[in-house]
Amino acid sequence: MKSIRSDEEIQSIREACQIAANVLQRLVDVVEEGMTTYDLDQLGRKYIEEYGAESACHNYRSGNHIFPAFTCLSINEEIVHGIGRLQRTIQAGDVVSIDVVVRYRGFIGDNARTVLIAPIADENQMLIDATRESLNYALTFARAGNRVGDISNAVERFIKRHNFGIVREFVGHGVGATMHEAPQIPNFGRRGSGALLKPGMCLAIEPMINLGTGKVDMLDDGWTAVTRDRKASAHFEHTVLVTSGDPEILTIPNL
Ligand code: MF3
Ligand code: CO
User: Which of 58, 72, 223 to mutate to test the pocket of ligand 1 (most atoms within 8 A of CB)?
Assistant: First the structure.
């Protein structure tokens, strides 16, 4: 089956994921009030190049649109696929989602995190904690013999304990030589439904959770997804390998 990777492919994906994780960590470490999102994106470009990798976002095509930046930077009501801009300065209290996808020796590593700029509003802290924890919980279901719906349902079940909105328009995905491979991994669904998980699958699991409504609007740039009520959104993502035992999280930084 196509979504099962060979040992050689897995080794390449592992290396791509290690780079993606280290780049993301470095961006998290430098992001601060007063920086423009353009500057942060350019740092992402530089870090990716330092590892001999390339951005899988840059020039990524979707329909008629070509993604112009090197990372996805989504601030406050922006959910995913925000584009770094010279006119957007990171401000006190911002909710900053950073998504790094690299290609290295032909394979993809994909991960994202949301960070808060001081002063931190309690509701934003609760939002990012819940989103991160929903990912960590869902990851434990990425086991051979489970189904995609077990991962999806874990996110939904976790988030239902809070009054937050789950984004339904965007989903996690398999990764391999391209960024979006089968299976799709929604952040909601029924236990026991969907594709069977097998050793050798590499999955990007990525809850996108909103303070208010889960409903989405698209900006005119053709990329940036924002919350319909313009309240804040958070996004955490890991790429994980399904094994015959415990899942292996591939996007843990080792700086
Ligand atoms: N992690 C995002 C995703 O899986 C990255 C998208 S890159 C972009 O959709 F180029 F499409 F923006
Ligand atoms: Co992804």
Answer: 72
